[in-house]
């Protein structure tokens, strides 16, 4: 199944893995790393190359399991409260002491009364071997304690030591060498210029390898020169069990990885049906070293390392790949997927109404924060087009279910105050998480209606009445008993470049020919505000250049203006300030939190309501600019 040539293929994941392993076998790659002996105390995390057999029993003798007195059980028969037994023949023992010869039971110290003449008074009989640890109770000499292929845990090294193991045989840790490539890549710690990128992928991949129990190191950054990349690959392969080439795996003019791997050995696969990570390269360097060509986008690099490298590295140690626990969750919103590729979707998780709810995070291969914020991974198989909102799906867990149960799920409109609240809540209670998903006010209300979130952030303007949020609550939520809590009032306006070079004064200027506007997504309250303002002026939205271009957060709008990709976009003053931009006020609006009325007293939400009453927190909000906390925390319905 060799894939050579300039074009990226779509090889199914299982087929790609099989082709890579076949190429490695044909090239003589070792199936296992070598064996070494390590002190048992330092064997945690290592994989046994040979079984551990007990060379001695534990305990090695019959021993007392309690502090008390050693007795002959037969001499205690008949002891009771009304007919105590007095013993003159006993031995005082402490926990762990060898049992004195001739004694077969221990009476706990607190159950013994010593008489004035030194005898022991017992008021209950004891059976033979009561509170006695028999020889070999834990481990018997010659028994198999741990099999080959077992990854050692702290309890394992303790048991091995008790069984007489001094230096168990383990597989050498696989060594991974990461080679970053690209003319635009700069070392971390330098200040990148326009078009330059910091080499964060090397840090991440080296850390992933070490987390998997390997040794790992990164080389110097190699420019986009096939000969230099080839030389670096050959040099790394000489001392590595796996080489990872970062970037250059696609089919662009500076993408040399596939050609370099083919020239240095065997190109097994170029392009796998997995997203993100489609252009991955799998091959082997002449002499017997596997090579993984990881895409340059960070999410693609991280996931392709997990999908392809981790199983190979585990196999080199003779261990099973580590598997995450999983759970069933309801999707908070519709999830579309492209047919033909396994789609790895990062999700945030929370428990709402007794069920785990999964909210998809941004899908871009370059959105590393989607992995940072993810609580789980949802794999949509290649033959599935996606899932509907509310559908139950299987999710691999990146956090424990106990942590997920302490997560407040907020879905709806984006606002910086929710980010501030998430930070403040976590600072006060490390077990508490506020997870916000930005799908627009309308999407938040629908999610609340369907029982998929605790809170819906909303600032929807109703053009017919001029009121915010409440008319939509009435229309969308019907008879559902909900409460509406005021979060803030905030200034909305046009975010423009520093100095407002185009001299924009308001909504009327958005129809200027050549203006580049960036809009919010359908269902967003900010977009509803713009549509209302345009309608009040009799302006067709299509007359605004760029109206169809959408971003999902205020910060994304500000980022587009700051990068010079747009001249203006509607957003909040705090977002403009965050990017050092100017702001043309348009309106002040309320931003509210909608919650089911029966959840208002939920202990999970109590810290949030307390935070909204905190004067220091309110002061921090207003310091952002463009916010008023005069009504923060007030229930408006």
Automatic annotation (TrEMBL):
It catalyses: adenylyl-molybdopterin + molybdate = Mo-molybdopterin + AMP + H(+). Catalyzes the insertion of molybdate into adenylated molybdopterin with the concomitant release of AMP. GO terms for molecular function: metal ion binding; molybdopterin molybdotransferase activity. SUPFAM superfamilies: MoeA C-terminal domain-like, MoeA N-terminal region -like, Molybdenum cofactor biosynthesis proteins, Periplasmic binding protein-like II. Belongs to the MoeA family. Its EC number is 2.10.1.1. GO terms for cellular component: cytosol. CDD domains: MoeA (cd00887). Pfam families: MoCF_biosynth, MoeA_C, MoeA_N, PBP_like. It is an enzyme of class 2 (transferase). This is Molybdopterin molybdenumtransferase. Its cofactor is Mg(2+). One of its GO terms (biological process) is Mo-molybdopterin cofactor biosynthetic process. Pathway: Cofactor biosynthesis; molybdopterin biosynthesis. Coiled coil: none annotated. It comes from Pseudonocardia broussonetiae. Keywords: Magnesium, Metal-binding, Molybdenum, Molybdenum cofactor biosynthesis, Transferase.
């Amino acid at each position: 199944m060799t894939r050579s040539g300039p074009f990226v293929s779509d090889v199914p994941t299982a087929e790609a893995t099989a082709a890579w392993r076949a190429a490695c076998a044909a090239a003589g790659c070792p199936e296992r790393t070598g064996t070494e002996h390590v002190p048992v105390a330092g064997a945690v995390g290592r994989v046994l190359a040979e079984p551990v057999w007990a060379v001695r029993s534990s305990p090695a003798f019959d021993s007392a399991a309690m502090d008390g007195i050693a007795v002959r059980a037969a001499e205690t028969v008949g002891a009771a409260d009304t007919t105590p037994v007095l013993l003159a023949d006993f031995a005082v023992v402490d926990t762990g002491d060898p049992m004195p010869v001739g004694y077969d039971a221990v009476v706990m110290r607190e159950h013994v009364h010593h008489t004035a003449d030194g005898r022991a008074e017992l008021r209950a009989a004891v059976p033979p071997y009561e509170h006695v640890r028999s020889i070999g109770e834990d481990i018997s000499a010659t028994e198999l304690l741990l099999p080959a292929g077992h990854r050692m845990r702290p309890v394992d090294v303790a048991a091995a030591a008790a069984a007489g193991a001094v230096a168990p045989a383990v597989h050498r840790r696989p060594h991974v060498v990461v080679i970053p490539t690209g003319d635009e890549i700069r070392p971390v710690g330098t200040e990148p210029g326009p078009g330059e990128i910091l080499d964060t992928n090397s840090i991440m991949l080296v850390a992933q390898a070490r987390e998997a129990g390997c040794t790992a190191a990164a080389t110097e950054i190699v420019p986009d020169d096939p000969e230099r990349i080839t030389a670096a690959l050959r040099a790394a392969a000489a001392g590595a069990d796996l080489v990872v080439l970062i970037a250059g795996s696609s089919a662009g003019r500076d993408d040399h990885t596939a050609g370099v791997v083919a020239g240095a050995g065997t190109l097994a696969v170029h392009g796998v049906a997995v997203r993100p990570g489609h252009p991955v390269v799998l091959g082997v360097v002449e002499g017997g070293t596997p090579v993984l060509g990881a895409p340059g986008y960070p999410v693609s690099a991280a996931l392709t390392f997990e999908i392809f490298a981790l199983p190979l590295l585990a196999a080199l140690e003779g261990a099973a790949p580590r598997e995450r626990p999983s759970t069933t969750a309801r999707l908070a919103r519709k999830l579309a997927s492209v047919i033909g590729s396994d789609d790895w979707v990062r999700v945030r998780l929370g428990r709402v109404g007794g069920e785990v709810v999964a909210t998809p995070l941004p899908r871009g291969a370059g959105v590393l924060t989607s992995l940072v914020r993810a609580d789980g991974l949802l794999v949509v198989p290649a033959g599935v087009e996606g899932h509907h909102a509310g559908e139950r799906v299987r999710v691999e867990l990146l956090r424990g279910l106990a942590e997920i149960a302490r997560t407040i799920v907020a879905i709806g409109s984006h606002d910086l105050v929710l980010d501030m609240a998430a930070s403040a809540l976590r600072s006060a209670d490390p077990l508490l998480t506020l997870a916000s998903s930005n799908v627009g006010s309308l999407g938040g209300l629908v999610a609340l209606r369907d029982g998929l979130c605790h809170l819906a952030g909303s600032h929807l303007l109703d053009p017919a009445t001029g009121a915010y949020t409440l008319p939509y609550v009435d229309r969308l939520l019907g008879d559902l008993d909900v409460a509406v809590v005021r979060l803030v009032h905030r200034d909305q306006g046009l975010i423009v470049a520093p100095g407002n070079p185009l001299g924009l004064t308001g909504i009327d200027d958005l129809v200027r020919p050549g203006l580049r506007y960036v809009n919010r997504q359908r269902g967003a309250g900010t977009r509803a505000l713009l549509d209302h303002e345009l309608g009040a002026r009799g302006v067709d939205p299509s007359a605004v250049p760029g109206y169809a271009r959408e971003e999902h957060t205020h910060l994304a709008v500000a980022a587009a203006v700051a990068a010079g990709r747009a001249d203006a976009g509607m957003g909040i003053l705090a977002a403009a300030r965050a990017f050092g931009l100017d702001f043309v006020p348009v309106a002040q609006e309320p931003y509210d939190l909608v919650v089911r009325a029966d959840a208002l007293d939920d202990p999970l939400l109590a810290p949030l309501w307390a935070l909204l009453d905190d004067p220091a927190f309110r002061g921090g909000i207003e310091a952002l600019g463009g916010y008023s906390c005069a009504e923060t925390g007030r229930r408006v319905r």
